[in-house]
C-alpha cells in the first residue's frame, strides 16, 4: 500500500515557497496506514507533469497531486490530467454552484469568466467538492492506481484531504497499521547516544526500525513498525521504547507527537489553575508566540513583556538600575530579577525570563555572541542557567526558546 | 544547465520534518543561473537511492543530494554512493583532522568510533570540508553529471553550498542568467487581478513568463526570464514590470526579495532615528517576533507588551477600565488606547496594537472569531481598522501579523 505525492509549481523549484503540503499529507497518510514512497516537486509544464504521473503510477497505488488548479493561465494541471487520461473537460453543475455560493457569500461580486472556468472537470472524474475555495479536487483511476488532484492552498488542501480523500481511501483499500513512537532526548550528541544504545540497537527485532533525528541540542529517536495487528504492533514498539527510555533515562524528556512541549505546559498549568508570564529580551517574543499559538493559552497566560532596550528593563519591568550596572544586563542576577518582576507585574505563579546576545553584534553586554541566561521563577524559587548557543542569530533565538520551554516544563513537574 | 535535488530521509516521507533545504538550495542555484528541474524526496533505502541517482543523471547536469550522512546505522548515503560509483571508502586524513578539531574545541571529548568513521569517503571523491560539523560533503562525477552529497543539517549544508559547491559550479559551467522580479499586491483576488491585466499578459514576449502566487490576502506576481545578456534581460523584465505596476497601482505594495517588509520598516526607522513599540493581544507576540528576527532591531525597537488577560491591559498597559466596559475589549477605542499607551510606556514614536479573537473560542468579546482591530499610533495620529480574518486560529494570527506590518509601513511612509 504505497502512495506518492507530486507537488506542481515553478515557485517551489525556484525556492520562492517552501513545500509544506507534502509533510502534512505524508503525516496524515501515515496515520491511516498508507506509506509514502516518494515526494516529487515538478514544474508547471505539460511534459513534466505527464512523465511524473506515469513514473509514479509504476510504483504507487495512490498518487496525490497538489497545485496548478488556479484560475490563471499558468495553471495547467486539469488540462494535463485530461491528456493523461485521454478525457475532455466538462462543466460540473455542482462545482459551478459552489463557485457561485462562494462569490455571493464572501466576495459579494459575480464570478469572473476565469472563475466559471474552474467548474470544468474531466468527464470521468469524481469531483471532490471544495467548500473553502473555487478549485475542486478530482479523483481518477488508471490501471489500478488512483490519482487525486488537490488545490495547492494548504487550508483548502487539508480540508479536502480529510473530508473527501481519506474516506474514499479507507473504503477502497485494506491498509496495514503503521506505528511510530519518538523519544525526545537532549544534552547528548547523536553518536554518543548511538554508542550507549549500540547493543540494544543490534538486538532490535527485524520489524522494528530505529531512526536518529538530530536537531538543535536534541536527538529524537524514532521506533517504527508496520503490521496487521494494531495491538500487537503497539505492544512490541512500546515495550522496546520502554527499554530505550530506561537506557537514556538521564537525557529523555518525553515522547513526541503525544503532545508537544507547549501543550504539556498548558495542560499542567490549566489543571492546577496556575498562571504564567514572560519577560523576553534576547528571544524577542519568540517564546510567547509559541505559547499563544496553541488554543486555550488565555486559561493560564497572563501576559508577557519584551523590554528590548536595556533602560526599559528598569522603567517598564522595574529592575533595579544598580543591579544592571553591577552585573551588566546579560547576567544571571538580571535574568532572575526579570523573572521575579514578571511574576509581580502580571501576578503569576511562574515566569520565564531571557537575557542574552542573539547577535550578530554584541549589543550592551560584554559576553560573547550566543551567551543567553534563562531564568525560571516558580512559587518556590528562582533558578537561572547560562548557555552558549553559537554565533548564528536565528539559531540562538530558536535554541533559547526550546531550552526555556524545557526548563519551564521541568520546573513545573518538580512542584 | 539543469540541476536536480534529492533529499534523503524517512523523516521527510512520514512528515516528521518539513524539507526546507530544497527551497534554500533552489533559490541559491537560481541566483547563479542554474535552473532546478525537479526535487525528489526519498527513503534511507539503498535501492531507492540508486534509482533516484540514475533517474536524475538522465535529466540533469548537477545532482545535489542532502541527508543520510550522520554517524549512525540508518545513514547509508556514502555507502550507496560508493556502490553507484563502483568505488570504496577510504579514510581522509583532512576530514579526520577536522573531526578531531571539532571534538577538542566544542565537545571537549575524544571522538567516538562512530565519529571517526565519518572520515571515510569514496576514494575518487573530492572532499568538501565541513568546518561546522563532522560529516564532510563530497563531489563526484559520472557521465558528465556532477553528484554532490551534503549533510542534511541546514546550517552545515548552507555553508558547504556557498563556500565549496558554488565556486566549483561557477568554475566548471558557463551559466545563463536567470532573472525574477516579483510584485506584491494585496486587496484583490487572483482572478480579478488576472482579468484586469489579461490584455497586457497576452502581449508579453515569449521569453518572459508570468506566474501568480496567491497567499493570505495577497497575490504576488512574478516575471521570470532566462538569457545570456544580464543587462538586456533585466531591462526587458524591469520594463514589463513597470507596466504591470502601473496597471495595478492601487493594489501594489512593493517588490519582493529586494527587502522584506520588516527590513523596509527597520531601514526607514533607523535612518530617521525613530522608535517603535508594540502592544499585542490577539497576535500574542507574533509581530514582535518577526521584528526581532532581523538583526539590528535594537536600533529602533524599544519594547513590546502582550497584555493577554483583559485585566492586564488595565494594570500593565494603563488602559482606562471604563473604556473596556463601554466598548468591550475587542474594539477600535481599546486598540487605539493600547497603541497610545504603548508609545507612552516605551517612550516611542510609533506603536502597533492588536486586539481580537483568534479563536477557536470567542474569549472575552462579543464579536465573531476572526475579528481583529489593528491600531497604528504615529507621531501625528492614531488610526485603527477592523478586519475579519476567518475562523482558523493560525491563519488569523498570521493574517493579522502581515496586515499590521503593512499598515505600519504605510503609516511610516506617509510621514
From TrEMBL, chains A, B:
SMART domains: MoCF_biosynth
Pfam families assigned to the protein according to its UniProt record, in alphabetical order: CinA, CinA_KH, MoCF_biosynth
Domain called MoaB/Mog: residue spans: 4-172
Domain of life: Bacteria
Gene3D superfamilies for this protein: 3.30.70.2860, CinA-like, MoaB/Mog-like domain
PANTHER family: NICOTINAMIDE-NUCLEOTIDE AMIDOHYDROLASE PNCC, NMN AMIDOHYDROLASE-LIKE PROTEIN YFAY
Family from the record: Belongs to the CinA family.
Protein name per its UniProtKB record: CinA-like protein
Source species: Marixanthomonas spongiae
